[in-house]
């Protein structure tokens, strides 16, 4: 808490002067460590594809005979609702406009090819490779939690090689848990840093109140009150209710845009995008969408890869808790189906709609993006919809509830990680959770005062970098767990015996026939 308090102070005092340092750090990371981000994502994706469709995919995350706690749809809805935050409402609409100016695969800006490719890179960055990074912590935590019945309070508790006494093991456990908190802070802080300016801009368009720092501070105050009530209510009464509401608001907004927009054009465009995504998947995985070094698409992918890494521990713990009774294959395929499908739907509808507004000449959203920023694009886009006041209000409410869910859940997880041993169903103390809510908001305020999307990108990339090594350790943990699984060993012993029995029956049957 002291460390992040000091970082927040530097951001608040430094203001826009910190932006240059952030730009330099982002350039350094994308230039010299790009290969490491790509390596872990490629290895991670291949590992889980092999795991899901191997014999180990049949391993049940629970005792024999355990039924799944949730149906496939219920489980998928919760995974999707928690795995995304309000950022997708903004980025799915503005990413394609940025790629239109910096198109992938050699297309000329604003050309027909640029429009065709504009939604491909964004959907890749929210696609299968991204969601499989959540599977890393999910399976690593779910196996000891449900198969062995171990209480998992921290991510380091899911690594058997670190269990037991010893100063060196204790130190490594502490380092891993610290890096997890560091990553969560970077991811959550960046989300709030992006979304508060958007909500302020849309509220300004809705009410006519000037979009000043005072409006943003008011929003921070309202968020604090909402978070305080949620944290006080606890996990089931507070966070659970928010989680149930925010998915309905977001999907409702998406359906309205799809129906009032050029519906068939959006659906046909998504079919073309998916075809190109499959065609260029290998090139995108190697971050070769742009020729040369440090192209726009390359920097965007580095930002997203850092962001997904930062969220990995939070998502892993949540999905692991709701996956009891499911097989490893069901969890992996479910994340690819519900998680990826949900994210691509936002890009198909909101991204497709902003591209249509630009191409048809209805609005010059690219000019608005370049001169006024992402928040102004959202406000302008929403005002093209029928009942614009209602839609602006619905959008603001969706963003607010998204933020409340994400931060309340993350504060709960971080408080758990930083508590002493919790027994049974014991929850972190309220003061601990509230202290982290305050740290989240102060840290995010510093990001807002520094300003600029590059600052958000730099913080996400920095926060995700140390978790690369944590992800590597988790992959080793999963491999050791599944290859020594008692049920799999038992099955391996039974199979040859059954085979010998069948051969013996065939011989007896054959002799009898003769």
TrEMBL record:
Pfam families: BCCT. The keyword Transport applies. The keyword Cell membrane applies. It is a multi-pass membrane protein. The chain crosses the membrane at residues 35-54, 75-93, 129-150, 171-193, 213-235, 247-267, 302-320, 332-356, 389-422, 434-456, 462-482. Its main location: membrane. It is found in: Cell membrane. It comes from the Bacteria. Keywords: Cell membrane, Membrane, Transmembrane, Transmembrane helix, Transport. Belongs to the BCCT transporter (TC 2.A.15) family. PANTHER family: HIGH-AFFINITY CHOLINE TRANSPORT PROTEIN, HIGH-AFFINITY CHOLINE TRANSPORT PROTEIN-RELATED. This is Glycine/betaine ABC transporter.
